Amino acid sequence: MRRRISPRALRRMMKQMGMSMTPVEGVVEVVLRLPGKRIVLEDPEVLVVEVGGQRVYQVVPGAIREEAVVEERPAIPEEDVLLVAQQAGVSPEEAREALEKTGGDLARAILLLTGQGE
User: Angle 29-35-56 (CA atoms, 0-180°, nearest 5)?
Assistant: First the structure.
């Protein structure tokens, strides 16, 4: 027969080993973002375990839900494409690609195409 360790004795042993465990209150959900999907852990119990100066988060979910993620590209107006192409001296296709990379930011796209940015 195994003898169970009391919570008090467990806390004392953890303290002697330099460990501490603290619950995180009020967590509604934890989201894991993966390419093409999200895993949502609902109503989790979250504990922060500190060992040797490092923090480890322990998450015990109440329910698990997977969601497909569809990447949406920003709508790039044609006049923006033409402006960037003209200012940077490139084709409209290159300008559109730069605008997509910069999330539609005209100035960053022009700098990227002229070699002055990123």
Answer: 45
CA distance 85 to 109: 10
Tokens (6 digits) for 96: 């559109």
Which residue range forms the structural domain that includes residue 107? Answer: 78-113
pTM over 0.85, yes/no: no
Quick check: is 50 in a domain? yes
* pLDDT classification of 11: cutoffs 50, 70, 90: confident
Q: Is residue 61 assigned to a domain?
A: yes
- What is the Cβ-side half-sphere exposure of residue 47, based on CA atoms within 13 angstroms? 9
Flag whether 2 is in a domain: no
Q: pLDDT digits over 28-45, tens only?
A: 999 999 988 999 999 999
Q: Is residue 64 part of a domain?
A: yes
